[in-house]
Specification:
The structure is a homodimer. Chain A is α+β, with helices and mostly antiparallel strands and about 150 residues long. Chain A contains six helices and five strands, in the order H-H-H-H-E-E-E-E-H-E-H. Chain A has a three-stranded mixed sheet with strand order 4-3-5. Chain A has a two-stranded antiparallel ribbon with strand order 1-2. The first copy, chain A, is globular and about 50 Å long. Strand 5 of chain A pairs antiparallel with strand 5 of chain B, so a sheet runs across the interface. Chains A, B: Its cofactor is Zn(2+); Mn(2+); Fe(2+).
Chain lengths: ~150, ~150
DNA sequence: TTATTACATTGTAATCTTTATAATTAGTTT
DNA sequence: AAACTAATTATAAAGATTACAATGTAATAA
């Protein structure tokens, strides 16, 4: 487990550098708060909410405003660094944008797991011909019960 | 256009009766407000928000509370009469539950159009084997620009 | 029919997430 | 270092939904 984490940390190090370059080349300033939000997003495996991020960083930045988190998430979204995942009642979740993938969501504990599957191009194509829309993208999620929650009945 | 509407009204008449039976057999009382919300949902073609319904009925029920609309929508949802469609920032939309179908959404004007396509069972099956989840259902929507909005550039 | 009971509606307050605003702070460029 | 501009902060405001308590009404029993 430790090894796993260390290995991941090495990996994210590159991703952070890459993301910072992306920000710089988009004319976005690198501030300590912004860097921390970005870093947390890249290292997090939980598809965090804005409040998750806010709480995770309040130790390091006791004066940081929740508006800063939202502002930065919007900036990251605008330049394509992160994707916003919106669900029913609860708050949005944010996903650092690596490769395209879908999500499987546990209805019992709320866990969100990545799920790789070829893009549903046929569905998009048919929708175009049937509805006359010019299709730009689609969204799909799968809901169910995760292994942990199945065990606990 | 008139003929079209009259024809549809005949059709919805049966659906309303059917839905009322469903409510009765579920032990849910039929009140005038509840009936009006149900009727509006069945006749509406726009996947209305709670506020759409509230506004549409305020002529007939000047004293109706917005809480009543929400309460009834919850009741309808609980017994499976309607489905709640949740999108990002905006408010939920409600769909009278006829047959299973997907939706195509215009990113320009917000229009939501029904789209019939065979259920993505293969995707669900693969998700089960890959993630170990017990899958219950999925959701999919397609986004793009509707014909009307394409015309207006 | 009347009384009882449980459910539904109403009006309003509260909650929760997200955005707007204005003042202050801090990167960046010259 | 000075000037310029963007980012942060604190707080207020907005918008959607839910909670709550009082009142009203449909269903059922007496
Ligand atoms: Mn993901
Ligand atoms: Mn529909
Ligand atoms: Zn779970
Ligand atoms: Zn449109």
């Amino acid at each position: 487990m430790h090894e796993h984490h260390d290995h991941e940390h090495d990996h994210t190090h590159d991703e952070i550098k890459e993301a910072v370059e992306h920000l710089k080349s988009s004319g976005v300033r690198i501030t300590p708060q912004r860097h921390a939000v970005l870093e947390y997003l890249i290292e997090a495996e939980i598809h965090p909410t804005a409040d998750d991020i806010y709480k995770a960083l309040e130790g390091k930045f006791p004066n940081m405003s929740v508006a800063t988190v939202y502002n930065n998430l919007r900036v990251f979204k605008d330049i394509g660094l992160v994707k916003e995942l919106t669900y029913g009642d609860a708050s949005s979740r944010f996903d650092y944008n690596t490769t395209k993938h879908y999500h499987v969501i546990c209805e019992s504990c709320g866990k969100i797991v990545d799920f790789h599957y070829p893009s549903l191009d046929e569905v998009e194509a048919l929708a175009e011909t049937v509805t006359g829309f010019e299709v730009s993208h689609h969204r799909m999620e799968i809901y169910g019960t995760c292994p942990d929650c199945k065990e606990k009945h």
